[in-house]
Amino acid sequence: MKIRHVFALAALLVGVEVSSATVLDFENLSEGHHLSDAPYGGITWGTSTDDSFNGSVGSFVASKITAGYAMASSGTTYLYNAWGVNRLSFTFDSGPTTFNGAYFAQVQGPLAWSIATKIRFSDDLGDQSSWLNLTEAPQYLSANFVGATTIYVEHDGGGPNEYTMDDVRFAEPVPEPEMLPALGVGVFAVCRRRRAPRN
């Protein structure tokens, strides 16, 4: 094996660790399913309390109601933040992950009682995305957080404000830091063996 092939193989192996994307579209969830009830899609879904609305505890809830309320980014199912609570979170069960982003939209029509106007992500490492101004049509909010374990979804506050979320995108867990030196040592050993004089 030529040296350049060894490095190409090493790069490919590392790339596989970080680029295998997953998209959760929630299509197999039933109407009204509370995601905080049990882990789903390799994620534990949290709850949040809105002190401005009788201390109501809300979570992400699946819905298929599109006529007169909201639009899904793909398929017919999306999530909404019950009771309009702010700073809902979700945690990757496998540990540090590359989190790409998700689609968001405003609720609409006669069933919409309090409407969020903008949204952003943050994570447990202190990273923040830009604010996304919401419209009734779903839009993608990019985060691209590397090594995040818990993601927070924040709306513009000022009381309970509902939004919808769909097509959550993330990658497989990032390589553990201790794996990278080991990979480097392996590549170095192969290269050294390749360059050693033969008897």
Helix content: 10-25%
> What radius of gyration results from the CA coordinates?
21 Å
Count of all domains? 1
Unreliable spans:
1-18
The tally of strands reads: 12
* Main beta-sheet annotation: 7 strands, antiparallel
CATH class: Mainly Beta
Overall spatial form: globular
Kindly estimate the percentage of residues that lie in beta strands according to DSSP: 35-45%
Number of distinct helices: 2
CATH architecture: Sandwich
SSE sequence, one letter per element: HEEEEEEEEEEEEH
Give the end-to-end Cα distance, rounded to a whole number of Å.
Answer: 19 Å
Protein structure class? alpha+beta
Q: Provide the residue-averaged pLDDT.
A: 81
CATH topology: Jelly Rolls
Description:
- By secondary structure, the protein is α+β, with helices and mostly antiparallel strands.
- It has one domain (21-174): Jelly Rolls (Sandwich), CATH 2.60.120.
- Helix content is 17%, strand content 37%.
- It contains two helices and twelve strands, in the order H-E-E-E-E-E-E-E-E-E-E-E-E-H.
- A hairpin with a 5-residue loop joins strand 3 (47-50) and strand 4 (56-63).
- The longest helix has 17 residues, at 3-19.
- The radius of gyration is 21 Å and the shape is globular.
- The model is unreliable at 1-18 (pLDDT under 50).
Task: Summarize, please.
The chain is an alpha+beta fold and 199 residues long. Helices cover 17% and strands 37% of the residues.
